[in-house]
């Protein structure tokens, strides 16, 4: 079936510069602009409300205390010694919220980064809930700003209706709401990559204006998380493509100049990105004091090439820490089956489970439309190739711990979905609207439990724990909710707890013991178990659960059992 589209004004995709300015004096035009602005504000307000509500209700997830503690060390001691496996920019952003907490780290503290996070959150004399909210707010703001990028990117390609379509899919994405409300690095790095791709698209018209900003965004991604390095070659090639397009010319001599300009543009983008990475480290410690952590694995093979990158020594040593983590054997839980080691198709399958069906349908069809529709085809490399390359790189990882490693997919799919609004078939706009509403309703139905979301084809959030584990379902976020449930429904009962997370149960008023530390015949009464622990239960826990009856669940991430 061929896709027919509205007659294009040009043979390339529509950009903001292509659209002629509208007369400002017409009341109808002013009404249209105000209506569009109100829709954008409403969608972002909905997302902000969902993220803030989630951030207030959730206890710390596994990674957050480490980032919070490291951010405090950045503020107080200007030291890079903690969490070297991740560059500092994301934690500097988290620190902007913690700067309002008047936190002071004990100078005598000498623990590791896990102990540091616990010390800051639970032993500093501050309310851990307030500290977490302050740490999460900068990421929430950044997530909303990336929503504007999605809207502008899609609007540049297809017009205002496409922009609203993309923003709606973004704003109602359960995974983006879930991870955008946490003080973690996954959404920031994905959003910076998306921003760089959008600015490179705009650079096709005005390279002098947008290429430097694209370099800044690329540098911000690399300075936030090392997984962004996989996108660097792609984005630099897109910089070449944009600069080449901007210098349209005929003749061999002009072609050589055109190529030289394109290569120079890519080099400039790379230099700016490199400068951003250096600036992030120097912002923490202007003297760049650094002692390599003990036990760094020796680089070998292609990994040894990382040492030639023009990046700070702490960054290069952080890459070696990541190599060591990749060399470990990590277990996988997928579609109810346990695997000793990574499964190469884990992320594509997990995305099928976790993305709303409406978003999956629109994003997939939109990707096809980007390639099939002639005037949109130039945009396909900017929207599709970065996501495909990043997904392929993530699939090679040995750590199958959640779709957060591919959180860029719903971002780029939202932009791709906008391509469908230019299809002229009579049914197309109605189908797009219906699928957007379907995705939104699916998201609203999971409120406020966004982290364990799965779509209707896989049974919804109540069944996600039977298919996936870790940050897909249970990342330690429901310790506070468990405390409330125990106080309300089980006051005074003996409680046994198997908790997978970084929170401290006693800080929430939970008086419980680990049943795995005593003989099984001594375990009686109420047994609360994190669903990730159930998914990967050892023989001891399996035996305890086999003699227990499930009676309740908390947040679709913790199951309560009655053990006689």
Helices, strands, pairings?
Layout: H1 27-57, H2 64-77, H3 89-98, H4 113-122, H5 128-158, H6 160-171, H7 174-180, H8 186-202, H9 207-222, H10 232-246, H11 252-284, H12 313-326, E1 332-334, E2 337-339, H13 346-354, H14 357-372, H15 380-383, H16 385-395, H17 408-417, H18 428-446, H19 479-489, E3 495-498, E4 512-513, E5 525-530, H20 531-535, H21 539-546, E6 549-554, E7 558-563
Parallel strand pairs: 3-4, 3-5
Antiparallel strand pairs: 1-2, 5-7, 6-7
Describe this structure as you would to a colleague:
With 564 residues, the protein is mainly alpha-helical. It contains 21 helices and 7 strands. It has helices at 27-57, 64-77, 89-98, 113-122, 128-158, 160-171, 174-180, 186-202, 207-222, 232-246, 252-284, 313-326, 346-354, 357-372, 380-383, 385-395, 408-417, 428-446, 479-489, 531-535, 539-546; strands spanning 332-334, 337-339, 495-498, 512-513, 525-530, 549-554, 558-563. A 5-stranded mixed sheet has the order 4-3-5-7-6. The chain has a two-stranded antiparallel ribbon with strand order 1-2. A hairpin with a 2-residue loop joins strand 1 (332-334) and strand 2 (337-339). Helix 3 (89-98) crosses helix 5. It is globular. It starts with 26 loop residues before the first helix and ends with a strand. Mean pLDDT is 92; it is low at 6-12.
Largest sheet: 5 strands, mixed
Q: How do the helices and strands follow one another from N- to C-terminus? A: HHHHHHHHHHHHEEHHHHHHHEEEHHEE
User: Going across the major beta sheet, what is the strand order?
Assistant: 4-3-5-7-6
Q: What is the average of the pLDDT values?
A: 92
- DSSP summary: helix tally: 21
Q: Regions with pLDDT < 50 over 5+ consecutive residues?
A: 6-12
Structural class: mainly alpha
- Count all strands and give the number: 7
Assembly type: single chain
Tell me the span between the first and last alpha carbons.
62 Å
């Amino acid at each position: 079936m061929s896709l027919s589209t509205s007659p294009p004004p040009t043979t390339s995709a529509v950009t903001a510069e292509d659209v002629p300015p509208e007369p400002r004096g017409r009341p109808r035009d002013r009404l249209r602009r105000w209506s569009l602005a109100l829709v954008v504000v409403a969608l972002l307000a909905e997302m902000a409300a969902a993220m803030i509500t989630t951030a207030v209700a959730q206890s710390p997830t596994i990674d957050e205390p480490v980032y919070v503690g490291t951010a405090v060390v950045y503020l107080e001691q200007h030291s890079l010694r903690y969490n070297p496996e991740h560059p500092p920019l994301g934690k500097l952003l988290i620190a902007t919220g913690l700067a309002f907490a008047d936190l002071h780290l004990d100078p005598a503290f000498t623990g590791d980064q896990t102990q540091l996070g616990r010390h800051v959150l639970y032993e500093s004399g501050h309310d851990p809930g307030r500290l977490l909210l302050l740490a999460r707010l900068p990421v929430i703001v950044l997530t909303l700003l990336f929503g504007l990028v999605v809207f502008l990117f899609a609007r540049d390609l297809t017009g205002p209706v496409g922009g609203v379509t993309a923003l709606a899919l973004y704003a109602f994405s359960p995974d983006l709401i879930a991870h955008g409300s946490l003080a973690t690095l996954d959404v920031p790095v994905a959003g910076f990559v998306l921003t760089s791709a959008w600015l490179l698209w705009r650079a096709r018209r005005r390279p002098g204006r947008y290429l430097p900003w694209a370099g800044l965004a690329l540098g911000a991604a690399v300075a936030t998380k090392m997984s962004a390095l996989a996108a660097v070659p792609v984005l630099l090639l897109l910089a070449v493509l944009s600069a080449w397009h901007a210098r349209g010319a005929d003749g061999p001599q002009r072609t050589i100049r055109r190529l030289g300009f394109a290569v120079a543009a890519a080099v400039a983008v790379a230099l700016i990105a490199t400068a951003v990475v250096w600036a992030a480290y120097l912002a923490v410690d202007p003297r760049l004091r650094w002692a390599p952590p003990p036990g760094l694995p020796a680089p070998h093979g292609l990994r040894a090439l990382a040492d030639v990158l023009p990046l700070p020594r702490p960054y290069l040593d952080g890459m070696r820490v990541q190599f060591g983590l990749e060399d470990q054997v990590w277990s996988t839980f997928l579609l109810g089956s346990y695997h000793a080691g990574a499964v190469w198709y884990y992320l594509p399958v997990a995305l099928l489970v976790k993305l709303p069906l409406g978003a999956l349908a629109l994003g997939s069809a939109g990707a096809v439309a980007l390639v099939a529709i002639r005037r949109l085809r130039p945009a396909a490399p900017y929207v599709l190739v970065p996501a495909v390359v990043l997904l392929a790189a993530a699939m090679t990882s040995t750590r199958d711990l959640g779709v957060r490693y591919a959180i860029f997919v719903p971002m780029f799919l939202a932009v791709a979905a906008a391509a469908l609004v230019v299809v002229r078939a009579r049914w197309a706009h109605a189908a797009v609207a219906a699928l957007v509403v379907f995705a939104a309703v699916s998201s609203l139905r999971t409120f406020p439990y966004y982290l364990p979301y799965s779509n209707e084809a896989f049974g919804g959030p109540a069944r996600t724990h039977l298919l996936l584990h870790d940050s897909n379902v249970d990342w330690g976020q429901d310790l506070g909710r468990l405390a409330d449930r125990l106080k309300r429904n089980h006051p005074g009962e003996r409680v046994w707890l198997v908790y997978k997370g970084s929170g401290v149960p006693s800080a929430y008023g939970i008086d419980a013991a680990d049943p795995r530390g005593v003989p099984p015949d001594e375990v009686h009464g109420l047994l609360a178990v994190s669903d990730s622990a159930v998914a990967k239960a050892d023989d001891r826990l399996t035996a305890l659960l086999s003699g227990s009856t499930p009676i309740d669940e908390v947040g679709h991430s913790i199951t309560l059992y009655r053990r006689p």
